[in-house]
Amino acid sequence: MTRSIKIAALSAVAMLSFSTVSQAAIVELATNGGFETGDFSGWTQFPGSAGPAGQTIVSTNPSSGNFAARLTETAPAANIIKQANLAPGLWTAGQEITISFDYRGTAAAGGVLFAELFSEIDGGGTSSSVILGGGPLFPNADPNVWQTATFTGFAGPDTSGGITLQLNASCAPIAGCNADYFIDNVSITADIVPIPAAVWLFGSALGLMGWTRRRKAS
After folding, report:
1. From 45's CA, which of 18, 21, 69, 150 has a CA 20 to 30 Å away?
2. Domains of the chain by start residue, with CATH
């Protein structure tokens, strides 16, 4: 009887794990992509030449909701925010990733915005680095008009450290350079299996097997 329970438990794990795989769904990986916390929670920041003053949260004319982020750079420097090291261990090589965000602002004399996707290696380094869209992004002629950028990226051969989306407002060493960008509604989605659910199922089955052992011993 005990052997039958064990087999049934292992069969349940196999079937439920297969079910979990078959039910892989589009998952939103960005944290605080709309900056609706009113700060940079969920983001890794690398301020440019102006320091923290060059990275602010604003409430005037967001694309949606109440807030948006503002990155301002006027010197030959990079002003960067990142959604860093997302979902380590969940990616397969070449897996498709959809990235989108809204942006507006002004750029002059070499001021640009780059969106970059990195496949991170655990312990340091990257296995893939891609400039999304192949080059810099420029705002609409009207700085108050939002545009939506949507890209398809792919996980590199080693994503043991997760994937990272980097938004970089930077200036060239040109007099009068200005990169003043507003960012909102950042989304990073992929079709992945939620590992915690699979782990829970496996742990539940192990618990059931342990229970049968204790019951037999008693």
Report:
1. 150
2. 26-194 (2.60.120.260)
